[in-house]
Design brief:
Helices cover 34% and strands 18% of the residues. With 225 residues, the protein is of the alpha/beta class. The chain has one domain (8-224): TIM Barrel (Alpha-Beta Barrel). Strands 1-8-7-6-5-4-3-2 form an 8-stranded parallel sheet. 41% of the residues are buried. Zinc ion is lined by residues 12, 37, 39, 70, 180, 200. The active site is at residues 39, 180. A divalent metal cation binds at residues 37, 39, 70, 180. It catalyses: D-ribulose 5-phosphate = D-xylulose 5-phosphate.
Length: 225
């Protein structure tokens, strides 16, 4: 499959101001964000807690942009339906979080949304290759999951490159490559060159206010080059 996808910027609301979330969502929309990335963490699968499924319903009320939900929870199958019903557009599941990743992805897809698998920095692509024909997206973690504001792991660009090569050489594989963790105006260039399509950015965008719009535009320009 030859990829000519539009590159997309996905602000991660983990770094937004929870007391002013609607304002921060509108600000990102006005700045040209393509979709929103929502991290749900349970304090078990990752050593941190964040939003619960109700955040998706709240987000759906204030934006029409696609909602990309990154599940960092044990037993994801239990929460997929409520999250889809709350208005999610894409469900991303860590392969280590479920006993049956193929089934979990099938479940999300059967509910009419896009679905994909998330690979941690230490997870080999070999572990998820069999999923390529059924996924819409694959999320390459470029930090260990659980926290915003961490440093990009440089070795992950090779992984993105290999992934891009794998999808180019198989007619059955048609998925977008998403990257998440430590994305800024330097690392985004490396990821784009390696073949990534969707760029999640949390602290780079939200912790630099004022100047949010400029930052979104900077990222957009860098990936279009
Ligand atoms: C981390 C989360 C990310 C986080 C990224 O586990 O999955 O989505 O918000 O934050 P930054 O862009 O600050 O690394
Ligand atoms: Zn995330």
């Amino acid at each position: 499959m030859v990829y000519m996808t539009t590159k997309k910027i996905a602000p991660s609301i983990l770094s937004a101001d929870v007391m002013n979330l609607e304002r921060d969502v509108k600000m990102a929309e006005a700045a040209g964000a393509d979709l929103f990335h929502i991290d749900i963490m349970d304090g078990h699968f990752v050593p941190n807690m964040s939003f619960s499924p109700s955040i998706v319903e709240g987000m759906r009320r204030v934006t029409d942009k696609p909602l990309d939900v990154h599940l960092m929870i044990d037993n994801p199958d239990e929460y997929i339906r409520p999250i889809v019903e709350a208005g999610a557009d894409t469900i991303m599941i860590h392969t280590e979080s479920t006993k049956h990743i193929y089934r979990s992805i099938d479940l999300a897809k059967s509910l009419g949304v896009k679905a994909g698998v998330v690979v941690n920095p230490g997870t080999p692509l070999e572990n998820v290759k069999e999923l390529f024909p059924i996924i819409d997206q694959i999320l390459v973690m470029t930090v260990n999951p659980g926290f915003g504001g961490q440093k990009f792991i440089p070795g992950m660009t090779k992984k993105i490159q290999r992934l891009d090569q794998l999808r180019q050489t198989s007619a059955d594989d048609d998925f977008e490559i998403e990257v998440d963790g430590g994305i800024n105006d330097e690392t985004i260039v490396k990821c784009a060159q390696a073949g990534a399509d969707i760029f999640v950015a949390g602290s780079y965008l939200y912790n630099g206010q004022p100047g949010f719009e400029d930052r979104v535009n900077t990222l957009k320009k860098l990936v279009e080059e």
